[in-house]
């Protein structure tokens, strides 16, 4: 009775598959909207009390009389400075390491080093924070910061008392944390460059440097940018490791040796102490600012990638 056999038409499976993918995408959008709405809703008291002055305020005095004073500028400044230091250190190191692993290293060495990098990425951030406070900060205090002060002390960036903790130490710890993420993704991107493309470049007489620069890097630039923003996202929102070593002081200073405060470390330090509504609302507004900063960075990254794709003639 072959004629009576019921088999679902392929179109039905296509509809089911499409429905599942749309539902999965919708869940992500709903979660994003729900988080944003919650942040805006609970930030209302601080938004109505301080308005845009919250973004430019430099003082954070929750128990000032007669009214508490909250300003987010020191936390925004600390977040941007620590993240910039981390990206500036981690990005070139990650790209160079990935190129070495893919283009130059022996396969055995490449596997060993690649696995070690992935293990570094798996270490919890609180471990980095404890190591930073008890091992790296004393090293910075006794060796690195005095040397920088003696050689580059004419710059405001390297003036001040070497305390070990501070903005520079926090930025370096963040760089160590995001380096494995950027390196692992970049290595995978470079490994996906078709061998025939590189062999064609060698066949035309290109050197290893020319093939790496003009073929491997150009082919994988979009993946490298994606890896960079993955690391940036982790750096800008990192909490525990930064809280251990940044010094946790609401101030803006030109010196990288001075203590500072990031948005994430302020939330980690003070949320349990926030015992009245306006205090809690100010902290939640800090979270809203962090959300907005991340969103703006992602939009700029997409626009840059689209422009890059347009110039290279590929689909953005």
User: Mean of the pLDDT scores?
Assistant: 87
Largest sheet: 2 strands, antiparallel
Question: How large is the count of helical segments?
Answer: 12
Low-pLDDT windows of residues: none
Strand content: under 5%
Instruction: State the helical fraction.
Output: over 70%
Shape: globular
Q: What class do helices, strands and sheet pairing give?
A: mainly alpha
What Rg do the Cα atoms give?
Answer: 24 Å
User: SSE order, as H and E?
Assistant: HHEEHHHHHHHHHH
Q: Please, what is the oligomeric state? A: single chain
What strand line-up does the widest sheet have? 1-2
N- to C-terminal distance? 52 Å
Would you report the number of β strands? 2
Structure description:
By secondary structure, the chain is mainly α. Helices cover 74% and strands 1% of the residues. The chain is built from 12 helices and 2 strands, in the order H-H-E-E-H-H-H-H-H-H-H-H-H-H. Strands 1-2 form a two-stranded antiparallel sheet. Helix 4 packs across helix 6, helix 5 crosses helix 6 and helix 9 runs antiparallel to helix 12. The model has no long low-confidence stretch (mean pLDDT 87).
